[in-house]
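Because showing beats explaining, we think one record worth quoting, sequence and backbone structure tokens together, and here it is:
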Amino acid sequence: MILILVSVCAPLGNACLAKGMTSLPELSMAHPFALFAAVFTPWVALGIALLIGFFASYLTALSWADLSYVMLATAWGNVVVELLSHFCLHEQVSFQRWLGVALITLGVAFVAPGPSRTVQPALNDSALVEKGVPR
């Protein structure tokens, strides 16, 4: 469930940010107060909330699984990004991007059956003594 949240919250949050920012006039770093005001527009605020949800679920996933597993398991979010971009934001998604998403999806399917946590070899007594661990 946590990995699904990670895979869905990030693309939804980014799509909301994109929708909110494209509805505003073009901004620049020369006008930081305009950037600050953009945070309080509804779509941008929703995007930020979703990205906070992403970050919380991402940290949770990293507490019980390796980074290499979490990144692969959440790569499905790339598919969600392209679908949201095409159908909700009405962006033109090129064939090369769709092909890239297909390759990522195939790669994830190829490596997904692996373990979520790398098991470290148990240390014997002499290795523990070498590391300075008291018996």
